[in-house]
Amino acid sequence: MRRAVRGLLGLAGLLALGEVVGRSGLAPEGYLPPTSVVLTRLVELLGDQSFVLDVVATVLAWAIALGIAVAVAVPLGLLLGSVPVLRHGTRAVVEFLRPIPSVALIPLAIVVFGMGPDTKIFLAVYAAVWPILFNTIYAMDEVDPLLVDTARSFGLNRGQVLARVVLPNAAPFVATGIRLSASIALILVVSVELLAGAGAGIGKFILEASSGSGRMDLVFAGTLVAGVLGYLVNAGFEGLQRKLFAWSATTGEVPQ
């Protein structure tokens, strides 16, 4: 409760600062609307069916991208973490692909998938795969060999050891990777909508509001919705992780 109160006080302070700066005249009129104006537009947008559909489009693309990333990265991470020869053999390829910014692939994605939602889903998957993959591989390294040897001494085969020993110990790390990737996927979906106008979504709404009429109040309102979604996604996954893996002594974080 104390942590929540501190968070609310910080948010209230930020909103108050936005109100003061917006009405101070430091920026040209219309460029930095006061918080009260932004919140008013936000309430109006929540009653606008077109904007609600944009939010739904963004959330749906995010959910699909995250699901695909999990389906790809977890099995691949388990495979690479279990087979050292395969892991070392693919390291050069992985280290070449991982640093490539997803937004740099926007032109290629548009050529391949067009301007529809497939483009933002593909780029979000590309960005979200890596945290899950590396957390899963790292989790395999952190499994206590003594636990594996003990399970084998009791007659468990390779599949049973994987299901009963390796996966439960790796789960907190994998969950952390999914939580990190959830935020990254949302950022990529909104960014691609904003930069490429790939399908309906919050990013495309912000792009249209900023061009032409230059409605910065709508821009900030749309940005606020994206920020709230990001906060809810991270808080939701963090709470779920804490509840499911309260037994784990590790945080599941990969050292940097």
TrEMBL record:
**By what name is this protein known?**
Nitrate ABC transporter permease
Residue ranges constituting the ABC transmembrane type-1 domain according to the UniProt record: 55-237
Transmembrane stretches, by residue range? 55-80, 92-115, 121-140, 184-206, 218-237
Name a biological process GO annotation: transmembrane transport
The protein's UniProt keywords, in alphabetical order, are: Cell membrane, Membrane, Transmembrane, Transmembrane helix, Transport
Q: Which GO terms describe its cellular component?
A: plasma membrane
Q: Which is one Pfam family of this protein?
A: BPD_transp_1
CDD domains per UniProt: TM_PBP2
Q: Where's it found, cell-wise?
A: Cell membrane
Membrane topology of this protein: Multi-pass membrane protein
Gene encoding it?
ssuC
Assigned protein family: Belongs to the binding-protein-dependent transport system permease family.
Query: What is the native source organism of this protein?
Result: Longimycelium tulufanense
> Would I find Transmembrane among this entry's keywords?
yes
